[in-house]
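I'll show an entry:

:::
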Amino acid sequence: MGTPAPPPHSPNALQAALRRLRPILSWRLTAVSVIVAVNIVIIALYFWSRGGATTHVRVEAVGSHIRAYVDGKMVVEARYE
C-alpha cells in the first residue's frame, strides 16, 4: 500500500517539508539577497559621494575685470566696457 507518513515531529517529516519548501525559498531568498545587495551599494555610494556634493563658486569683479572660480580653479576671465 505505500509508505505511511512519518510522525509530524520526526526528522524525516522535517526533511520532507524542507524539500517541498526549497523551490519556493530559493527564488525568494535570491530576490531578497539581490534587493539587500543593491540597497547596500546605494547606501555606500551615498556616503561616498556626500563630500562631493558641495561646489564653491567665487566671482571677483575688480574695475572692469571679472574672474570666476569654481572649486578654486579659474573658469572665466573677461573684461567689460
Remarks:
- DSSP finds one helix and three strands in the chain.
- Helices lie at 11-49.
- The beta strands are 57-62, 65-70, 73-79.
- The first strand starts at residue 57 and ends at 62.
